[in-house]
Prior knowledge:
This protein is of the alpha/beta class.
Amino acid sequence: MTQARNSYHGNPNLKPLGDQHDFSEEEIKEYVKCKDDPVYFIEKYVKIITLDKGLQPFKLYDCQKRKVECIMNNRRVVLMEGRQQGKTVTSAACILHYTIFQEDKTVAIMANKSSAAREVLNRYQIMYENLPLWMQQGVKVWNKGDVELENNSKVLTAATTAAAIRGKSVNWLYIDEAAIIPNNIADEFFTSVYPTISAGETTKILLTSTPLGYNHFWKFWNESVEGVNGFENMFIPYYEIPGRDEKWLGEQKQLLGDVKFNQEVMCEFLGSTNTLINAQTIARLSTKDPLYTKSGLDIYEEPQEGHFYAMTVDTSRGIGGDFSAFIVADITKMPYKVVAKYRDNKVAPMLYPDIIGKVGKDYNDAFILVEVNDIGQQVAEILHQEVEYENMLSTVTEQARQYVSPGFGKATKHGVTTSKQVKRQGCFTFKSLIEEQKLLVFDEHIIHEISTFTEKGNTYQADEGYHDDLVMCLVLFGWLTSQNFFKDMTDVNTREGVYKQQMGDIESNLTPFIRVTGNEEEVEVLGGDVWLTHDEYHPVSLQKKLKNMINS
Length: 552
């Protein structure tokens, strides 16, 4: 290796700013060849540290050569392969080529944690320090988190947060182990950062990972396979790596166990273990883009005239963490369909009822069932009293058993308390609906929550680090469909029968106590005074109001 006359901060392996080199004719030819052929450049000049032999030339496997060509020749790439197959080091070598041979380019290396992103940069720096000095660019900045070269190309590192690279001009976004990013962080990141970068005409995006459940990486991969998101996909199976034969496969299966083996070696998308919904059903679920998205609300189907809808509502305190959520299901006919969902962990409980009411009215005055555990009771009361939403479902509790009731009286309450019995019945029914394809879902958040809704003791809940707010809405929906009153909600004849029964009860109750005198709107209360009333208290008006309420 030729040494420079000076060095960058005492590092003899780094070319300083302003160091001039008189290129020989052979070096010029070699430089041009390396620029035009990334595979040639990597194999001839790039060195990596191996576990067995230390610093060694990077000799690419055939599958890695294809990987380099795929990464360098496509703007958007999603790459899936098993553990320890060299996806990170190969990506680092591609970034090295990109920043050396192109000017004014900024690469952002991102991962679940900043330390993981810096580890990728460290591999880049080892490669750079071992290049011939005549091939290097002079170094402006060289530290654990950033590199800037004399040709104004830069490499930045950060954790995958929305604020990490906001406001920065990024030419290439690389996300390492994309499947590891928690779903709540990925939501914010891809909502705020990804659209800006993907909108560029020359920007590059590279996602690499081993599968880890039904999350954003799974969504990107599936959509790339379907050809709907503009990403080139590449999968490298274990057997394309030399030395990974049947003996190696058996050793890995014994070492990792079935679940980790299928996920980390075979690259299967799996949810958590012991999930409520079986793995075969989860694997069959697929997402689609909503027609409309705004402020936590995703619409998959617009309301249709003559259709019946049901909403089930879960409430959080709006301070981050758990989400306030609801789903809207078309219950007109089987299979039922989730046509809209809402999810927000910062909406104030005082404002939440207005959102619920607005969406409910849009969906043909949907029947609404609110979970009234904790803060949900307040939401239900505001929805009923202030928003004046009429189609709220009520429940009656008798002998520790809750059931939906259309009636009135002191024994009824708006909403449902999620007791052990309600949750158990809801889980059972929801499981049957999904696994028998009697309930269709297309939302990525819902599917992800389903894949991490696992058995814990004698119940089911979100796996550690995940959420189950949307799934609990579906559990409530499952419980609702198990109620005798559920079929009455969409049965016109039954609804008319309920109306007649209720009117008969009201009229019989009113007769002994109220009489109308002449044409005056006077009501004499027996044993009391005579009151002059507004029309809305007139028995005829009361009849109309009750009929409208029941028919709605």
